[in-house]
Amino acid sequence: MKKILMIGTGGTIASEVTQDGLAPELTSQQLLEHIPAISEICEVECIQLMNLDSTNITPNHWRLMARCLRDHYAAYDGFVITHGTDTMAYTAAALSYLVQGSPKPIILTGAQRPIGFDSTDSKINLTDSFRCATEDLPGVSIVFNNKVILGTRARKTHSKSFQAFSSINYPLLGVLRDGCLMRYIRQDCGAAPIFYDLLDTKVSLLKLIPGTDGELLNYVLQRSDAVIIESFGVGGLPSYEGTDFYSSVCAAMEQGKTVVLTTQVQNEGSDLLVYNVGHSLKERLGVLEAYDMTTEAVVAKLMWILGQTRDRREIERMFYMPVAHDILWRA
Ligand SMILES: NC(=O)C[C@H](N)C(=O)O
């Protein structure tokens, strides 16, 4: 029987009703006690790394999770991390950069309703996740509502219903039907994973609205090593009286900061060269663009890259180099 490590981090799945709203209180061991049938699927050992609403998860917690995987990697056949859904897509992306090429499954799961509630999705999500953790499903993925989503492509797209996650600009890796995994895609992997530990957390995101105050961008640029600007459509920077976004970006890049343009539109990604509002940003300034990557993946990838280098060319090379199919290859 395969041996799986369950790593508890909190979330709704582990939450109980308190006077001040739901709060994570159950340990991984207590979660398992709700589903005795898991012992027919695999042998499980548990570690409780933290017990947090995922709103409170930070990049330091991603590093703790990656270290936990590294320290216990050899002893288990697969890993199930229980996590709040609110920032699970960020954690999945971060672990995809911190633990690359894993031949063993690293599954993140959680729930929209606590395990103690009559109408809960916790039990099916956990059972499906343990099934997937015993399969040939390399790399980091999210198993939720019968779907298997690649870690770099997940996004929370429903705040309440069980179908919380979607795969963005990439097909599902598989689905679960009556507890059986139908795998559509097998991720490539190495003989052993490469673990990373360093992250530069001075990465910020600015979402534009029509008429954004240019001083906001200056402020964010000042306080960050990299800024992601979530712009409109296929991407570009506005210009109107009283703002000079272009000069702000230019000055920040001269100081060695990294600027990435992405889009608020969920599907199909950016293409800065299409419109005049984006063209010179790309051609003359050389800002990076996200193309089909999710914002969650861009955030985590920049932290991972800047944890390793400050060289502009190297940053650009690493940014466009696909890791776990986070970006479609561009020749
Ligand atoms: N469904 C959930 O898990 C939401 C919860 N607030 C969390 O992210 O921890």
UniProtKB/TrEMBL annotation:
User: Which one Pfam family would you cite for this protein?
Assistant: Asparaginase_C
Q: Which InterPro entries match?
A: AsnA_fam (IPR006033), Asp/glu_Ase-like_sf (IPR036152), Asparaginase/glutaminase-like (IPR006034), Asparaginase/glutaminase_AS1 (IPR020827), Asparaginase/glutaminase_AS2 (IPR027475), Asparaginase_C (IPR040919), L-asparaginase_C (IPR027473), L-asparaginase_I (IPR041725)
**What is this enzyme's EC?**
3.5.1.1
Offer an example of a GO molecular function term for this protein.
asparaginase activity
Which residues take part in binding substrate? Answer: 54, 85-86
Enumerate the SMART domains for this protein: Asparaginase (SM00870)
Keyword Ribosomal protein listed? The answer is no
Q: Which reaction does it catalyse?
A: L-asparagine + H2O = L-aspartate + NH4(+)
Question: Which keywords does this Swiss-Prot/TrEMBL entry list?
Answer: Hydrolase
- All copies of the Asparaginase/glutaminase C-terminal domain together span 202-319
Q: Which domain of life is it from?
A: Bacteria
Q: Which residues form the L-asparaginase N-terminal domain?
A: 3-177
Catalytic positions?
Answer: 12 (o-isoaspartyl threonine intermediate), 12, 85
What is the uppermost EC class here? hydrolase
Q: Which GO terms describe its biological process?
A: amino acid metabolic process
What family is this protein classified in? Belongs to the asparaginase 1 family.
Mind telling me what this protein is named?
asparaginase
Instruction: List the source organism.
Output: Oscillibacter hominis
